[in-house]
Amino acid sequence: MRIGELSARTGVSRRSLRYYEEQGLLVSSRSPSGQRYYDEGHVERVALIQAFLAAGLSSGTIAGMVPCMAEPSASRAERALEVMGRERDRLSSAIESLTAARAALDRLIDENRRYLAAAPPGAAPEPR
Asked: What is the pTM of this model?
Protein backbone atom coordinates (compact mmCIF):
# COMPACT_ATOMS: atom_id res chain seq x y z
CA MET A 1 0.00 0.00 0.00
CA ARG A 2 1.11 3.57 -0.50
CA ILE A 3 1.52 6.21 2.17
CA GLY A 4 -1.98 7.64 1.65
CA GLU A 5 -3.61 4.29 2.35
CA LEU A 6 -1.41 3.68 5.41
CA SER A 7 -2.38 7.14 6.63
CA ALA A 8 -6.09 6.41 6.10
CA ARG A 9 -5.91 3.00 7.77
CA THR A 10 -4.01 4.20 10.82
CA GLY A 11 -5.40 7.71 11.23
CA VAL A 12 -1.83 9.05 11.24
CA SER A 13 -0.95 11.91 8.92
CA ARG A 14 1.40 11.40 5.99
CA ARG A 15 3.69 13.97 7.56
CA SER A 16 3.89 11.91 10.76
CA LEU A 17 4.56 8.73 8.80
CA ARG A 18 7.43 10.45 7.00
CA TYR A 19 8.73 11.66 10.36
CA TYR A 20 8.60 8.10 11.71
CA GLU A 21 10.75 7.04 8.77
CA GLU A 22 13.21 9.88 9.37
CA GLN A 23 13.52 8.75 12.99
CA GLY A 24 14.07 5.12 11.99
CA LEU A 25 10.79 3.96 13.53
CA LEU A 26 9.31 2.81 10.24
CA VAL A 27 11.00 1.48 7.11
CA SER A 28 9.22 1.38 3.77
CA SER A 29 10.25 -0.15 0.52
CA ARG A 30 10.61 2.21 -2.45
CA SER A 31 9.51 1.98 -6.04
CA PRO A 32 11.98 2.91 -8.79
CA SER A 33 10.33 6.36 -8.85
CA GLY A 34 10.85 6.74 -5.07
CA GLN A 35 7.27 6.16 -3.89
CA ARG A 36 6.96 4.58 -0.46
CA TYR A 37 5.27 1.19 -0.15
CA TYR A 38 4.06 -0.48 3.02
CA ASP A 39 2.57 -3.85 3.97
CA GLU A 40 0.17 -5.05 6.67
CA GLY A 41 2.97 -5.23 9.21
CA HIS A 42 3.36 -1.47 8.93
CA VAL A 43 -0.22 -0.94 10.09
CA GLU A 44 0.60 -2.82 13.29
CA ARG A 45 3.94 -1.02 13.68
CA VAL A 46 2.26 2.40 13.38
CA ALA A 47 -0.31 1.36 16.02
CA LEU A 48 2.53 0.34 18.33
CA ILE A 49 4.37 3.62 17.72
CA GLN A 50 1.17 5.55 18.44
CA ALA A 51 0.62 3.61 21.67
CA PHE A 52 4.18 4.31 22.82
CA LEU A 53 3.90 8.01 21.95
CA ALA A 54 0.56 8.27 23.77
CA ALA A 55 2.22 6.70 26.81
CA GLY A 56 4.82 9.46 26.81
CA LEU A 57 7.75 7.72 25.17
CA SER A 58 9.81 9.98 22.93
CA SER A 59 10.56 9.06 19.35
CA GLY A 60 14.22 8.74 20.37
CA THR A 61 13.35 6.24 23.09
CA ILE A 62 11.17 4.26 20.69
CA ALA A 63 14.00 4.29 18.15
CA GLY A 64 16.20 2.71 20.82
CA MET A 65 13.79 -0.21 21.00
CA VAL A 66 13.11 -0.62 17.29
CA PRO A 67 16.46 -1.98 16.04
CA CYS A 68 15.97 -5.22 17.92
CA MET A 69 12.59 -5.63 16.19
CA ALA A 70 13.84 -4.69 12.71
CA GLU A 71 17.30 -6.29 12.69
CA PRO A 72 17.69 -8.58 15.69
CA SER A 73 21.07 -9.19 17.27
CA ALA A 74 22.13 -10.04 20.80
CA SER A 75 23.69 -6.63 21.48
CA ARG A 76 20.67 -4.76 20.07
CA ALA A 77 18.32 -6.95 22.07
CA GLU A 78 20.29 -6.26 25.27
CA ARG A 79 20.26 -2.49 24.71
CA ALA A 80 16.57 -2.53 23.79
CA LEU A 81 15.75 -4.64 26.84
CA GLU A 82 17.41 -2.03 29.06
CA VAL A 83 15.40 0.78 27.44
CA MET A 84 12.19 -1.24 27.63
CA GLY A 85 12.73 -2.04 31.31
CA ARG A 86 13.39 1.60 32.15
CA GLU A 87 10.29 2.74 30.27
CA ARG A 88 8.17 0.04 31.83
CA ASP A 89 9.26 1.20 35.29
CA ARG A 90 8.46 4.82 34.36
CA LEU A 91 5.01 3.84 33.08
CA SER A 92 4.31 1.77 36.20
CA SER A 93 5.18 4.76 38.38
CA ALA A 94 2.94 7.03 36.29
CA ILE A 95 0.09 4.52 36.52
CA GLU A 96 0.46 4.39 40.31
CA SER A 97 0.37 8.20 40.50
CA LEU A 98 -2.67 8.40 38.23
CA THR A 99 -4.44 5.70 40.22
CA ALA A 100 -3.81 7.61 43.47
CA ALA A 101 -5.10 10.85 41.89
CA ARG A 102 -8.22 9.07 40.65
CA ALA A 103 -8.85 7.61 44.11
CA ALA A 104 -8.52 11.09 45.65
CA LEU A 105 -11.00 12.47 43.12
CA ASP A 106 -13.40 9.61 43.84
CA ARG A 107 -13.30 10.51 47.56
CA LEU A 108 -13.94 14.19 46.81
CA ILE A 109 -16.80 13.32 44.46
CA ASP A 110 -18.37 11.11 47.12
CA GLU A 111 -18.01 13.85 49.76
CA ASN A 112 -19.56 16.40 47.40
CA ARG A 113 -22.48 14.09 46.62
CA ARG A 114 -23.09 13.46 50.34
CA TYR A 115 -23.02 17.20 51.00
CA LEU A 116 -25.49 17.90 48.18
CA ALA A 117 -27.77 15.06 49.33
CA ALA A 118 -27.85 16.54 52.86
CA ALA A 119 -28.37 20.16 51.74
CA PRO A 120 -31.89 21.44 52.22
CA PRO A 121 -33.92 21.69 49.02
CA GLY A 122 -33.78 25.12 47.42
CA ALA A 123 -30.80 26.20 49.48
CA ALA A 124 -29.34 29.42 48.11
CA PRO A 125 -26.13 28.93 46.19
CA GLU A 126 -23.00 30.36 47.76
CA PRO A 127 -21.58 33.55 46.22
CA ARG A 128 -18.72 33.03 43.79
From this structure: 0.73
